[in-house]
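User: Here's a chain of 102 residues. Predict its fold as tokens.
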Amino acid sequence: MKDAPRQQFRWAPHVSGIANVKLKEYEPSDQVEAQNEYAAWAVLRNSERPLGVGDILETPAGDLRICKYVGFEAARWFVPEPHPNAGPPSGAVALETLTGIN
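Assistant: Prediction complete.
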């Protein structure tokens, strides 16, 4: 996890349930092989980059586990829903222009 979001995460109140996490707040890291998230934490504990509060582990199946003070909990990537009244993206060309329909 990047430093600025980590500080916000550290001081936020603990909530239970699946955490929604934003991809932009994380940087990819090395892989570690372990039987579960606690074994991965133990392997990384004395490494150059130990797991900290707010860090995420991703399983080969794509499941996310976020490190919290109380242990690891489920997480998922936050995907914003498109605004229902949003027009085409800037620079988009109307369908009529592309197909020649009048």
